[in-house]
Amino acid sequence: MPISSSSKRLVLASASPRRLDLLAKLHIVPDQICPADIDETPAKAEKPADYARRMARQKAAHVQAMVAGSTASPAFVLAGDTVVAAGRRILPKAESAEVARQCLALLSGRRHRVYGGVALALPDGRIKTRLVQSEVRFCRMTDADIALCLAAGDWQGKAGGYAIQGVAARFIPYIAGSYSNIVGFSLFDVAAMLTAAGWSVDLGSGAA
Fold this sequence. Notes:
The chain is of the alpha/beta class. The protein has six helices and seven strands; from the N terminus they run βαβαββαββαβαα. Helix 3 packs across helix 4. 38% of the residues are buried.
């Protein structure tokens, strides 16, 4: 049964089905899904970690402004942003097979970092943020390996051109840090932020 111990609504500032599925693991079903349509262009010389935190905060603020006054019931707004970085280079979200291929070729045989920005806008207008860092290593991939990942199609719209919960997992021998952060956002940090803000997250009876 979804948790609703708080009288305040929870709005998810993302249309990502992965983030919705992750919240379901905490038995949380948002009252509303409201994607944030903002400019996601990195600033000049912006570091990947700073970019992830800024994007999450701006998405939360944007949706907070959209839902403010739309209902008598106050709302929390939860937003996340995932950034895949090779060194200081921010990899794009793959919108074509060629972009995904270029990303995978770059990541092949090396470690990279996945930065997750999490932002929670509170009903009183404040916005809390956290930054989570995970590390991923791909084995050295052949052209055929990369072609297999592309054929699966789960690279579409994914930062860095891969989904760790998809076919790419067979080429990833090592991760460090939060797995859920790589998928969409860190469940540990989301739960901690909601709890600190007064939204009760109960992982007891009935939790998967």
